[in-house]
User: Fold these one by one.
Assistant:
Number 1:
Amino acid sequence: MARRFSILLIAFLVAAAWLPGPVDVLASALDAPLRQAQDDGRLTAGDAQAIEASIDQAKAEGLPSAPFTAKAEEGLAKRVTGRAIIQALETMRSDYAFARDALSRGGRAPSPDDVIMAGDSLRLGLTRQELDDMAAFEPPASPAELATAARTRAALNAVVFPARLSDDILRRGLASGALSAQWAQLFRVVQRTREAGIPDAAVAQAATRILADGGGPAELLQELGLTGRDTRKAPGKPSK
Amino acid sequence: MGPATVYLFVMNNIIRSLILLLPLTVGACATMDNAVRHIQGEFHDAQGQYYLNKGDFASGRAAFAPRVAENPEDPELNYFMARFELGGDKPEAALPYIQKAVKLAPDNADYRFWEGVTWWTLMKPDKERSAYEKSLSIDPNHLSANLYLAHNMLDRGRNAEALKLYDKVLALNPDEPQAMFNRAVVLERLKRTGEMKLAMHRYLESYPDAPLARQGVRMLNKAGDFTWRNHPMGQRNVALRAVDFKPGTAELTEEAKASLNRVRDILSENTGLNLNVIAYVKGDESLARHRALAVQEHVSRKTFGVGCDRLTPRWFGQPETVKSDGRTQVLAESVNIFTKIQNP
């Protein structure tokens, strides 16, 4: 009886192991979409090799490879030409390498996420000169804070926030060590305050004050007479 | 293998095992199909909450995107996708998912609430308000919807309605920090200064370390109330209840001791920080001196790594002049504490 039960149990466990799981994540390898694009005649064998070589080169340079794979997948899914995908990957590689070098100044060791955030910021409107300048601030900020500053500045540039005011805010943020990741949302505060007729200079002044307090954009909104919302978790529970 | 991987591995195997065991319990279930769907629903809920609680929106999105593509009419899957997109700062991507969730489950107050949050992010205040109102028509005591509807009203300058809603939130949860704070803001706007001060004192006593505390102190100071003050300590301003004493003595009150204990904690954590302690007593320099020394003595504790040399006491037999919001205030008796700048 016991032996029969053991056999049944083993059979059950083997079957359980083989049954497809409900949370299996789709394989993200690039092979299949590359092959499919070639089969469809959208990509030459040379372009496919160049795409793979570009990703390999990024890896060899110690850059985080996941965004490169994702970019190529996105291009293939959108049926972008092979040349355009290769060009986009080359731009990314150059931006990430520049960002990694800027964030590594003074022997600092940026994480892959820091490099991605700062590298993508260059694509989103931050100039290399601006990133260089921020990396040279004294006292030196952590790579994570610099990456946040890069993203914040890129987004502020995109909404045409005056460069001098951006400088004031980010200099204060990096000096105080209060530039949390939430500050990347500062451009949304600017959009909202402009809608309410509040001048950019008033936003910058309040932002430097809130950074001195160690607060974030939600507190900045309050300081400017508006309220914030938490988009990540429901409010209503005491924060004690 | 990280905790998330272990969690997913365990959950996967539980589900696999349950699915295999189902034939044994099928008699107890209405149908096999319903049972599987029910278990999957429970699983989606547990896993979705897991990603939300962890704040790992990218992984949540990656896990749920294929599922919602397979089951586009599942309201819960659409809801979680909306939350992941919203959490990942992609409100435009979140909107169609939350709208679908609302359409598929119109009686769910939470879905309506998150639709409101999505509209706020997209700067559509009318649609935001409408979503919260629908949420409240389903569940009038939905705390989050009441709170954010109050915020919506406050942003529009509809102060009386905002006040009523904040009062309702505080009836549901007397310690809700945003409602406590913004109730004081509304009262300030309504020029009900006395009530504003009471409300802000209540907030500061409950949440002295909150980022909004400094703003609360500025509001009180602007109204001429200096029972709380912001003190520059290191790279931060710290909101502290005023350091006061039993009348005519250098004996600290219990509230003052609590404030000074926070100062000690800050000094203990920040070993490079030194502070000035300046006591003012109009017309009594000797008492001012004793008070400055009393503060130094209370804060200094070798066991906390805070020697008395970390605080430099000074005293004046004259009142303190404080500038607040462009106006000058004179305080007959006070103690000011702030960072001591080190000479190079």
Number 2:
Amino acid sequence: MTTSTSAVGRLLPAISSLLRPPARDELREYGGVGLVRRKRVIDVGCGDGRMALGCAPYASEVVGVDPDPEAIRLARSKARELGANARFKVGVAQELPFANEHFDVVILSWTL
Amino acid sequence: MVDALREAHRILRPRGILIDARPDSRVFAYAEHQGATSKFRPAGVIATAREEHTNDRTSDRAVTTAVGSRWFRPLRAGRFWHRVLFEDRPSLQDYLDDHARFVHRVRWKVDEAKRRQWDDDPWAIRRAVRFELFERT
């Protein structure tokens, strides 16, 4: 499992999908895409949307939440670029603006 | 962190899945050199910074609280390894200098002359990621 970058530590110190495994590899470790297929998924602490966008082709609904507005802006831009079925919101893990029992899967990837 | 887990419990349907994944500070990371055969070989070990150990322990305690409170039931845990690639050794060192997770100095297993010889070659940090899947009760 490899992440390729030449910008690590220089260009993207904070919002760095580049420092993390590709979402498909990470999902495979957790049990594969079956885990999120046709599920309602939330990626809490989503950063620039790495895992949320990785789940989007399979899930019925994907939401990413992160306190960093710049990260959310990037995630939205990537989602538009990919035509991905994912929404992104600025917010904190301690106060998520969603109804009780709404999601099938909660992802805390490099968040806790 | 406990608050975040309580909130995860609230928004998850019963029997929904919580995935918690984080860098695994219980094991060293490796500084690896890519040789002529394209294979990466460990050239040094990199420890996790003390503050990050403390943060990781706090996260562990939060998870223990969530499980102890019966918000979640553990399903499966594991670890995988992930390589972050660098163009050369100075880039790897820049990364260590700038980031808080690791200590800034590699504990080298190869001598300085060898390292200098390899300065312009590709390098990587190979680090462990631990994960656990939980079912919402």
